[in-house]
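User: I've been trying to design a sequence by hand for this structure and keep getting stuck. Would you show me what you'd pick, starting by listing the structure so we're on the same page?

Assistant: Good idea, let's start from the same input. This is the structure you sent:
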């Protein structure tokens, strides 16, 4: 059983996943390793930041907090350049620790650890790889939000796995149903608001369309989910992005 959710000092949360890295593009698990944004990822962040502001964030009453890994912090910096104010960095918003999988491609994991990979693909607990339990990721991320200063809104710049676990925790989705929400694409965001004593998901996987001639594959129009290549399994993560989902 999860502990009771703490009362958060912010009633509106925008969870923003970092832009693309070369490892995302090649299907390599990043976990808590720190590859930088690639050119596409930097472009994604530059396009998305104005759209986040256009969503009605109050400049004087919005706090921005980010994972301290560079791919998230550099994504967050594009919003700070427009919004102003300080950027808070918090290691508790880092990606899900993936243990022995970090630095490996999906194909390498499937070859070296076939039983673990099969469990991951099926949404079962993955045992023996080390790293973190999904519940641990959720609890540390919630603790980071509980320590924010009071504000009308918070933009939380984090990672695919951590964002998923955080949404599931806030929405009280149990482990058996955690894949009901699709994974965030690179530089996509979801929004939750507090209504009464429950959190409600009001926007999921929003993003901006790629500019003409750009190579930001998989970026959808604002408010729509990205359309990844057709996977061999109905709940498989996008084939080009190992870190999008756990």
């Amino acid at each position: 059983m999860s502990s009771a959710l703490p009362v958060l000092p912010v009633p509106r949360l925008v969870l923003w996943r970092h832009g693309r890295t070369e490892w995302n593009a090649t299907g390599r698990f990043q976990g808590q390793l720190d590859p930088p944004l690639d050119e596409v990822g930097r472009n994604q962040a530059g396009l998305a930041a104005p759209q986040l502001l256009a969503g009605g964030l109050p400049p004087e009453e919005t706090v921005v907090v980010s994972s301290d890994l560079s791919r998230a912090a550099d994504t967050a910096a594009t919003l700070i350049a427009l919004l102003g104010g300080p950027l808070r960095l918090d290691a508790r918003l880092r990606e899900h620790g993936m243990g022995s999988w970090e630095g490996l491609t999906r194909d390498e994991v499937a070859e070296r650890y076939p039983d673990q990979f099969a469990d991951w693909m099926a949404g079962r607990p993955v045992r023996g790889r080390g790293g973190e339990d999904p519940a641990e990721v959720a609890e540390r991320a919630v603790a980071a939000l509980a320590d924010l200063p009071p504000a009308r809104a918070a933009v939380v710049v984090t990672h695919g796995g951590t964002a998923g676990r955080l949404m599931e925790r806030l929405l009280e989705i149990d482990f058996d149903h955690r894949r009901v929400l699709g994974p965030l694409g690179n530089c996509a965001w979801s929004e939750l608001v507090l209504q009464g004593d429950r959190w409600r998901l009001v926007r999921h996987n929003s993003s901006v369309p790629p500019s003409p001639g750009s190579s930001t594959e998989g970026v959808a129009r604002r408010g729509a989910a990205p359309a990844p290549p057709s996977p061999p399994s109905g709940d498989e993560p996008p084939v080009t992005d190992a870190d999008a989902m756990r």
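That's my pick for every position. To get oriented when you compare it with your attempt: The first strand starts at residue 12 and ends at 17. The chain has two domains: 7-97+134-195+206-222, 99-131.
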